[in-house]
Amino acid sequence: MVETCVVVGAGVAAFGFVNTIREAGYQGRVVLVGAESVLPYERPPLSKQYLTGKKDEDALLFQPVSFYEERNIELRLGTPVEEIDLQRRVVRSADGNELAFDTLVLATGATPNRLPVPGAELAGVAVLRTLADARALRAALAGAERVVVIGGGFIGCEVAASARTLGKQVALVETLPVLLGRALGVEIGSAITRVHERQGVALYLGRRVVGIEGRERAERVVLDDGTTLPCDLVVVGIGVRPVLPAVVGDLRFDDGVVVDATCATNVDGVWAAGDVARWWHPRIERFLRVEHYDNALAQGAAVAKAVAGQPEPYDAVPSFWSDQYDLTIQHYGYPVEWDEIVVRGDLDEPTFTAFYLKDGRVYGAVIVRRPREMRPARRLVEQLAQVDRTLLTDPSVDLRQLLA
Length: 404
Hints:
Strand order of the largest sheet: 3-2-1-7-20
Strand content: 25-35%
Shape: globular
Structural class: alpha/beta
Number of helices: 8
Number of strands: 27
Largest sheet: 5 strands, parallel
Distance between the termini: 51 Å
């Protein structure tokens, strides 16, 4: 009897899985079940090149349908899963159909947090996660002049940059005193904040949205100090949370599906990858859940090898990048609290490499406009290197000389 592997989700992690599963030697049936009706596609361009019209939908697809046909991957797109029954080993879709599985891969991703204020459901209030979201936002931007972005994380900053590139008036509201403060800290976040100020974004930092007003659609955003921001369009980017259909059975879930170092859950034959997975990282010996493209793609591939009988500890260094205006912000590292940030270069320019240290070891690095330092900086993070701070800050010192 042929074994059936069902993949729930059709995003980046799911593509990483199906792109690797046949090469890994798996001979069973593979069924990809996705809620969206489109083939698996890249999400990072949605807030950047797609919004600004530099990239069309066809260019977002990882592969054409022929790719899946050649690998005998069954596609069930536009099929939201409502329930996963781990006891009966079946997946039930919204139309009531059931699909039995021997092996299950959970690649369900995450969903945007909604703004918990009056008026948040008005027309003209958008989030950005899916291609459908991006289509609607791109169309709305074409007819908007005044855009209010709520949230100063990566999505908020990227949407603000895209809107300014399109010539829109942009106001950005963030509860922290700097942009990207949660991910990059105050010092580096301040450097990115200055970039947006120079590009003409009106920043309302340390402020909180208490309501959105309008008759039939959003017309004003009200802040906690009474400030009112007129708008034609509101974009909410206040983070995401892992999403999973209803589950029958004892699946461990704690800010994501909890898995071991090989991405296996506590249920035999069930695996998880991507934004929904909270896995034990053997290098730093703690659980991580990472919401980035590179991790989802690589973790999906790692699960494919495990399903094919070649499980290995997944110990990749998380990484991500963000394009804002003419800047590319590249980050390598573990999402842990740091003791100190060491900078080489000029934060005001900005052209710099910043290292995040904990207990004297390099746990992270951010590189802006110093491409030659990207690879050695990543290696320093991989090694959790202990390096003299004076050498890290000295731009005349080649970082390659500091590698073990």
